[in-house]
Design brief:
Number of strands: 2
Strand order of the largest sheet: 1-2
Order of helices and strands: HHHHHHEHHHHHEH
Shape: globular
Oligomer: single chain
Helix content: 55-70%
Largest sheet: 2 strands, antiparallel
Distance between the termini: 49 Å
Strand content: under 5%
Number of domains: 1
């Protein structure tokens, strides 16, 4: 992991930037102009980016994978992909944090559910299910998941320190919100298969890589995608109720969040999934997840509002205690 060694130096810089931004934000007046607010948001995003880089180094030291570094097989080397993907992740998390209606510990929880839930928990299910084609060692899959958990814990805690938006009362949601969650779960599966067929499966390279999918049983695959769809829908409910602003504003944040946290990982070199296949999946996943983020917002919150529902109370309702 020699290529990670130079990233250690960003730790001091990250702490310095984060401290300076935190102090500047606390002393800034609420009547700051748009330019000043944009500058502060940019500095906080840089702080998030540095935190993600540092936490990645920490995670690789705590959970070493002991596998050869992948050779560049696409437009980015491993170092370039590390900088780019974490930069995109920092932007998406900063957008979420800046538009959140909660702060401190609740903001850290909101960020963690978004980052870990979308990028790790749901995505790992598909990796395990299709691993017969991908042929990725199980210890590598689990190790990457453990590393991403560590990164999420550190980055989301820092995000709650950097961003502290004003608290806002929860917006009412439709009374039939959980019927909408069920519909959103099915909508995810429909978008998944539509993008898979009309984008990915039109590529001869993808069809050849997966062996024309003759070995993939359709009904079990649909069942797995329904489980993933339900998980995505519940995560979406938790995240979107933690946002403030108009539906269009929330939809924009959700679209960016889902695209970056799902498709972004495909930019990393991967010896088991060649770039010719990954670039098709990049378009496929990016398209479906962008549409999903928009659909999720309007499907969950559109229409007549009946009762307030906060991000925290979403899970109490699910558990039947609200």
């Amino acid at each position: 992991m020699k290529h990670f060694m130079h990233l250690r130096g960003v730790l001091t810089a990250g702490i310095a930037v984060s401290t300076a931004v935190f102090a500047a934000d606390r002393t800034a007046a609420r009547e700051q102009g748009a330019a000043t607010n944009a500058l502060l948001w940019g500095l906080k995003t840089v702080g998030m980016w540095l935190t993600l880089l540092v936490s990645t180094v920490v995670a690789t030291k705590l959970v070493p994978l002991n596998v050869p570094l992948p050779k560049p097989d696409g437009p980015l080397s491993i170092q370039q992909a590390l900088l780019a993907v974490n930069g995109l992740t920092a932007i998406s998390l900063s957008l979420l944090a800046a538009n959140a209606r909660v702060r401190w510990a609740r903001l850290a929880g909101l960020l963690f559910v978004a980052l870990f839930g979308i990028q790790t928990a749901v995505m790992q299910i598909e990796i395990f299910y299709f691993n017969e084609s991908i042929k990725m060692p199980a210890e590598v899959v689990l190790g990457v998941g453990a590393q991403q958990t560590i990164v999420a814990l550190i980055a989301c805690a820092m995000g709650a320190l950097l961003f502290h938006p004003a608290d806002e009362a929860p917006h009412p949601v439709p009374a039939d919100v959980f019927a909408r969650v069920a519909l959103l779960s099915v909508s995810y599966v429909a978008l998944y298969y539509a993008a898979g067929f009309f984008i990915a499966w039109q590529s001869p390279v993808v069809r050849a890589y997966y062996g024309n999918a003759a070995h993939i049983a359709m009904l079990p695959t649909i069942a797995v995608q329904l489980v993933r769809g339900a998980m995505f829908a519940l995560i979406s409910l938790f995240v979107v109720t933690g946002l403030k602003g108009s539906l269009a504003r929330r939809a924009a944040v959700m679209a960016v969040l889902f695209v970056v946290l799902t498709a972004g990982q495909l930019l990393y070199p991967n010896p088991m999934v060649p770039w010719a296949v990954r670039q098709v999946h990049l378009i496929e996943v990016g398209t479906s997840e962008f549409v999903y983020g928009v659909v999720a917002t309007f499907l969950l919150l559109g229409g007549a509002a009946r009762r307030p529902l906060s991000g925290g109370s979403a899970w109490r309702l699910i558990a039947g205690r609200a």
